[in-house]
């Protein structure tokens, strides 16, 4: 059989360079009109059971976050349901792994994918729930809908949105877990205290195109919140307009991080209107979440912005400043949550969904005081 490599599908990204026997040399394709790249997702076919292949991504050293490759492990699947880790090495700018085939076809990805077809299924399931109100807030540059759901009757306005960076596919797994929990009786207390608005995918164009970080115009949406435009960032423009109409008391922006092997939160230190009382709500949430689940910790994370130096083009800072919201960015790992590691699957879709539930349960316990 002849080995073939293909990424011409929803969310796919790879460029074959050479096939030399059982060695496959590859390159990741940069986001359209952008230098960003790191996400990969491709299929290898024509394999014989027991055949051992070696994949080498030759341009890994020039990717957006090469410091994220050490300690990272590629995901592989033969059924596109279970995604297991493969021992992976990084040296001299090349990402390399070997795998022994169990059948004729295998898929490899940076993380378990969440495609636009999966998104459409999520929208269909959620829209059928009686107290989940669906609307399209607008459309992307490629004309795809920016889907949103609203549920709950309480006075607090909670906005939860994710996948501004499309290659961070764990974010929509998190969203799936959040929407499933919000559709269950367990969410009744939170929905009595708050009205929740959920945007499960802010960047459908980048998702379908197999981008890491940008939309169809090569724009990083999480640098557009100070002045979104219809020409560059209609995805942010329509979401922020909807937020202006309701106000925002709590904002959760869901992301993935390439380098840090743990789940953590980033806040809004450095905004012009920062006060210790405002910030204390965010810090208390993190402490309570860490006490609630072993899938979260507070020791690792990003450096805090100095006073007055927050980047207001980023959503968490903009919404904290604009609305006085308790605003946060969740970062989940492409590697694993080392404080509670899983040697087979690493950080995974199942764990992303469970973390969403833990975060909403913690929010339900605290939101009265916000």
UniProtKB/TrEMBL annotation:
<dbReference type="Pfam" id="PF18027">
    <property type="entry name" value="Pepdidase_M14_N"/>
</dbReference>
<dbReference type="GO" id="GO:0006508">
    <property type="term" value="P:proteolysis"/>
</dbReference>
<dbReference type="InterPro" id="IPR050821">
    <property type="entry name" value="Cytosolic_carboxypeptidase"/>
</dbReference>
<dbReference type="GO" id="GO:0004181">
    <property type="term" value="F:metallocarboxypeptidase activity"/>
</dbReference>
<protein>
    <recommendedName>
        <fullName>Peptidase M14 domain-containing protein</fullName>
    </recommendedName>
</protein>
<feature type="active site" description="Proton donor/acceptor">
    <location>
        <position position="331"/>
    </location>
</feature>
<comment type="similarity">
    <text>Belongs to the peptidase M14 family.</text>
</comment>
<dbReference type="Pfam" id="PF00246">
    <property type="entry name" value="Peptidase_M14"/>
</dbReference>
<dbReference type="InterPro" id="IPR040626">
    <property type="entry name" value="Pepdidase_M14_N"/>
</dbReference>
<feature type="domain" description="Peptidase M14">
    <location>
        <begin position="112"/>
        <end position="370"/>
    </location>
</feature>
<dbReference type="GO" id="GO:0008270">
    <property type="term" value="F:zinc ion binding"/>
</dbReference>
<dbReference type="InterPro" id="IPR000834">
    <property type="entry name" value="Peptidase_M14"/>
</dbReference>
